[in-house]
Amino acid sequence: LGQRLIDVMPYHSEWRMKTEEDCLPFCAVSSSRCRAIVYDVFQHICHYFTDDGTEHAILFHGTVYFRVASKLCLGK
């Protein structure tokens, strides 16, 4: 089971992303806003959030949740 975010709207979504790793470059480019990513495994969509999701994450089948722990990791 993965996680998804409830009660928050993504600031951007990208379609046709083959893997969850494909979500990471856009988050790095928009690092001033990107705090979390939810990847939908079945629809191949990356959703980008300004909220880190720690208070909004719930278990949900078919998703992968990433939280930006440090801005330093986005620069690499």
Structure overview:
With 76 residues, the chain is mainly β. The chain has a single domain (2-74), classed as Hepatocyte Growth Factor (3-Layer(bba) Sandwich). The protein contains 2 helices and 6 strands. The strands form 2 sheets. A 4-stranded antiparallel beta sheet has the order 2-4-3-6, with no helix packed on it. A two-stranded antiparallel ribbon has the order 1-5. The longest helix is centred in the middle third of the chain and has 6 residues, at 24-29. The radius of gyration is 11 Å and the shape is globular. The relative contact order is 0.33. The mean pLDDT is 91.
Helix content: 10-25%
Strands of the widest sheet, in order across it, are: 2-4-3-6
Total number of helices: 2
Which term fits the overall shape? globular
Please state the second-level CATH architecture.
3-Layer(bba) Sandwich
Q: What is the CATH homologous superfamily assignment?
A: Hepatocyte Growth Factor
Radius of gyration: 11 Å
Write the layout of secondary structure elements.
Elements: E1 2-5, E2 12-14, H1 24-29, E3 36-40, E4 45-49, E5 57-60, E6 63-67, H2 71-74
Antiparallel strand pairs: 1-5, 2-4, 3-4, 3-6
Give a quick set of tags describing it.
Hepatocyte Growth Factor; four-stranded antiparallel beta sheet; two-stranded antiparallel ribbon; 2 helices; 34% strand
Briefly characterize the structure.
The chain has 76 residues and is mainly β. The protein has helices at 24-29, 71-74; strands at 2-5, 12-14, 36-40, 45-49, 57-60, 63-67.
